[in-house]
Amino acid sequence: MPAPEDDLALLEQAARAAGRIALEFWRQDPKSWEKPDDAGPVSEADLAVNEELHSILVGARPDYGWLSEESEADPARLDAQNCFIVDPIDGTRAFIAGQQGFSHSLAVARGDRIVAAVVYLPVSDLFYTAFADGPALLNGAPIAPSDHPIRDARVLTYRAAAEPRHWRGNTPPGFRREFRTSLAWRLCLAAEGKFDAALSLRAAWEWDIAAGSLIAERAGAAVTDRRGQRMRFNSPRAMVDGLIVAGPRLHGELQAALRS
User: Can you list the domains of the chain with their CATH numbers?
Assistant: First the structure.
């Protein structure tokens, strides 16, 4: 069985290839359309990147399962000891609009745990990596979360998460809400301390958060679902019950402030 470091090297190679393809389409008015059931937009670039990732990753590890936002569900992944979990382009709306804040999110799950992860933003050449028991790195340099308390913390989340109904005493805590389109990048920004936390009270697709969750964990952040439970991956639903990613102190304060 390949070591997590070897899987990480493969993910890095695939992420670079994904970036090259995405940049060929970026700001070139790629064809795009809405998925059924209000599942969001997809572009021809998403599909081209997905095809390349599948070719590189499954070509190198044919016994690994495959879970991707842009592939048909394959139940065989549930019986695989290892599984690739990828989002070919996370932040497709930003990509279609010609904005820079999209990423490629690639991870390997061993059982229900992530053991290797890459989040790559090709426009700005930001390359986040981590593997099990290893450091979290940004372009080769170690990263760490902030130690900010909840008051005036900069929290990456969507507008509805700050509504009083979600918080004890009907009063949202005094954090400052900000937003980035790519959920994978939000986790990495919390991991490197540029923001103090990433928060979602909605169920999140595994392909959006698998890579970022390991990067944040290896950076030293506390990483759980919205109820404070350990995240588990390659599940039948391919979803996690929300997320709280922050330095240990802020994570505890956010968890205590949320309604159960």
Answer: 4-140 (3.30.540.10), 154-257 (3.40.190.80)
